[in-house]
Amino acid sequence: MGGGIPADPAVISEQFRDSKDHPERKELEMSGLAKFFVVINLILALFFFAVSATLFQSQKDWKGAAENAQQAHEETLSKAKTMKSSLQGEIDSKSRDNVSLKSEAEQLGTKVTALQNDNGDLRKDTARLETKIDDLDSRIAQKDDHIQDKDSNIARLEEEITRLSSEIDSAGEAKKLAERLRNRALLDKEQLAQQTEALNKELTALKQDYDDQQLLISRIVDSGVRLPDIGVTTAPPIDGMVVGVQEGVVVLSVGKDDNVEIGYEFTIYDGDRFIGKVQVTKVLDDMSGCTILFQEGSGIREGHKASTRLSG
């Protein structure tokens, strides 16, 4: 080929790539952009088609929905009108009721005012009653204290009554015992009086017999005959007391139970002072009758001591 450098494809391609202003490179770059825009246009066309289809479908639904909404609106409006008429009747009724209630409220307000006035009076009465109640509580507390004092006094009185009742019972028993002793003493006194009367009779007979014996002894002694001592019996130690003196007869507090026998002689003492001497002429179980052998001073009296022993 005419005196030039043979054409190497690799070298040419390298040269083509390195040359920005090369016409073929520009054609290649323009072809790529065209493809890109074609693809973009295709995508936008598909998107527009989809949007158009969607809008068309939505428009069809909106019309049906509008018709349905219109029908529902008319039905709702009809119901609303019916409801409005009903509510208007109720409102009128409620208005009338409201007027009546206002009248009643005014009447009730008047009553409330009256009740408030009455309540004020009641509060005053309540305050007075509370004051009276407090006063009554104070009085009740005082009464309770008085009642407690009375209960205490009653308890003490009951104890005293119990003690006195016991003493009365004891006194009653003592009185009964005293009455028994008194009756026994009266009986003993009556028996003693009877015994004393019998002793007096016996003493009278003994005196007569004694006088006769003394007269006989005197005659025997005057005739010169010596007689031994007679009529005296030696007695064991016995102590007693003079319980009675009547018409020359002395009654002692000792008898057969104390081993007293007829003929025993007792010496009579007032304390330690010698008063006289007696001899037993009658013996009972618990007492004995004696004749007075001799006596000094004011004589033998009830309460003097009597003993078979001589007091040293």
In short:
Residues 1-7 and 226-232 have low confidence and may be disordered. The chain has 2 helices and 6 strands, in the order ααββββββ.
How would you sum up this structure, described in words?
There is one protein chain. By secondary structure, the protein is of the alpha+beta class. It has a domain at 232-312: Rod shape-determining protein MreC, domain 1 (Thrombin, subunit H). The protein is built from 2 helices and 6 strands. The chain has a 6-stranded antiparallel barrel with strand order 1-2-5-4-3-6. The radius of gyration is 82 Å and the shape is rod-shaped.
Helicity level? 55-70%
Shape: rod-shaped
**CATH architecture heading of the domain at 232-312:** Beta Barrel
Highest CATH level, the class of the domain at 232-312: Mainly Beta
Q: Major sheet: size, sense and barrel closure?
A: 6 strands, antiparallel, barrel
Considering the protein shown, what is the CATH homologous superfamily of the domain at 232-312? Rod shape-determining protein MreC, domain 1
The multimeric state of the shown protein is single chain
Q: How far is the N terminus from the C terminus?
A: 219 Å
Relative strand content: 5-15%
**Low-confidence region ranges:** 1-7, 226-232
For the CA atoms, what is the radius of gyration?
Answer: 82 Å
How would the blueprint of this fold be written?
Blueprint lengths: L8 H10 L4 H200 L16 E8 L2 E4 L12 E6 L2 E11 L4 E8 L9 E3 L5
Antiparallel strand pairs: 1-2, 1-6, 2-5, 3-4, 3-6, 4-5
